[in-house]
């Protein structure tokens, strides 16, 4: 089982980034996918979640209207489009796959928002 995040980096405030998480080794299409983020001294926070069939998604209030989660089950990939980035979005972003008691994590990708 692998979840490999990519797309992080350094971006200026108000900029955009698109994170990707490529999955392998499990039935991606049947898993709920969630993007989390973590900063030093804080608990890992759920940012955006999308169900196995796509469609409706949930977001933490702080990113609503700025971030969009999507998935391509044919490519076993989930995305996080991040627009209007703020310094407080700086974190390590992780993708998570969950189905029942099974849960998998990626290694994380650093997003830094700074001028």
> What sort of overall outline do the alpha carbons produce when their principal axes are compared?
globular
Task: Quickly count the helices.
Answer: 0
Helical content class? under 10%
- Rg, rounded, reads 13 Å
Mean pLDDT level: 96
Strand content: over 45%
Outline the low-pLDDT stretches: none
Structural class: mainly beta
Number of strands: 11
Tell me the span between the first and last alpha carbons: 37 Å
Instruction: Characterize the largest beta sheet: strand count, sense, and whether it forms a barrel.
Output: 7 strands, mixed
Order of helices and strands: EEEEEEEEEEE
List the helices and strands and how they pair.
Layout: E1 2-6, E2 9-11, E3 17-24, E4 32-38, E5 45-50, E6 57-59, E7 67-72, E8 77-82, E9 91-99, E10 102-105, E11 109-113
Parallel strand pairs: 2-11
Antiparallel strand pairs: 1-3, 3-8, 4-5, 4-9, 5-6, 7-8, 9-10, 9-11
């Amino acid at each position: 089982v692998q979840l490999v995040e990519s797309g992080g980096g350094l971006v200026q405030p108000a900029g955009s980034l698109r994170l990707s998480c490529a999955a392998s080794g499990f039935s991606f299409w049947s898993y709920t996918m969630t993007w989390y983020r973590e900063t030093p001294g804080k608990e890992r926070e759920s940012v955006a979640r999308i169900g196995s069939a796509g469609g409706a998604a949930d977001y933490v209030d702080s990113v609503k209207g700025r971030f969009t989660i999507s998935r391509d089950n044919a490519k076993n990939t989930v995305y996080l489009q991040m627009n209007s980035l703020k310094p407080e979005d700086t974190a390590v972003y992780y993708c998570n796959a969950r189905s029942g008691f099974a849960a998998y994590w990626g290694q994380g990708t650093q997003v830094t928002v700074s001028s």
